[in-house]
Amino acid sequence: MGNLLKIELFKILKGKEKNVIILSFTFMILSPLISIFLSESSFDKEFLSNIYRFFEYNFSTLFPLSIGIFSIWNIGNEFKNKTIKYYIMSKYSRFQMLIAKFLSINIFTIICFLITYILYCIIAFLTSDKVSVIVNFETITTSSLILNLSLIGITTIFYIIAIVTFSITLAYIFKRQNVAILIFIIITSLMLLLFGGIYELSIIPRYSFFYASELYTLIWQFNNFHMFLRYILPCVSNIFILLILSSVSFDKYKYK
C-alpha cells in the first residue's frame, strides 16, 4: 500500500494535472492582494479584513472548482489512457487503488493549500496597517488570533477532503473525465448558488460539505468552537458516504 501511494504521488508530481492547483492557488493569492493594493480604504488595510478577502474571493468558485477539476482529471486520465487495467491486473485490490488515489490527491492538495494559506497570512500581515493590527491584538490576544486562523485552516482541510472525495466519486461513476468535470461544475455551482437564493432551498447545502464554503465568516468570531464543528461534521459524514459510492462504482467497473 505504501509503495502504491508513493507511485500515485510521483505521478501527480510528474503529471500536468498539478498545474491546475498550482496556477489556481497562485491566483488565489494574487487576486485579493491586487484588490487590497488598489483600494484606498483604510478598512482594506486591516489584517483580518485581508484574510477575510482571501476566502471571500476564492471559496465560492475558484477554490472548489480547481480542486474538483484536478481530482477528476487525475483519475479520468487512467480511464482515458486505459492504464487503469494495468493497476487492476496488479497485486493491489481495487479498494487499495482507490485509497491510494484518495490519499495522494488529498496530500498534494492540502500541502499546496497550507503553503498558500500561510504565505498569504504572512503577506497580509506585512502589508496591513500596523496600527489596526495592534488594535486587534489588544482586543483579542495573539494566541486567540492564531488559534482562530488555525481552526479556519483545519476546517478548510476537511472541506478539501470532501471536495476531493466528491470529485473522485464522479470520476469513478462516469469514467469519462469531460462528463465528470461538467457534472461537477453544474452541481457545485448549483449548491453554492442556493446559499444566496431561495431561503427554503438554501437549507439543502447545509447538510452537505458545501456548507463549509461559508466558514470564512468565522474570522471575526473567536472562541466559537461549536460553529467550526457545524462546518466539519457535514464534511466528515459526506466523505464516508462518497467513499462508499466510489468503492462500489469502481468495483463494478469492467475493463475491455
From TrEMBL:
The chain crosses the membrane at residues 20-39, 59-77, 98-126, 146-172, 179-199, 228-250. This is ABC transporter permease. It comes from Clostridium thermobutyricum. Pfam families: ABC2_membrane_4 (PF12730). Keywords: Membrane, Transmembrane, Transmembrane helix. The keyword Transmembrane helix applies.
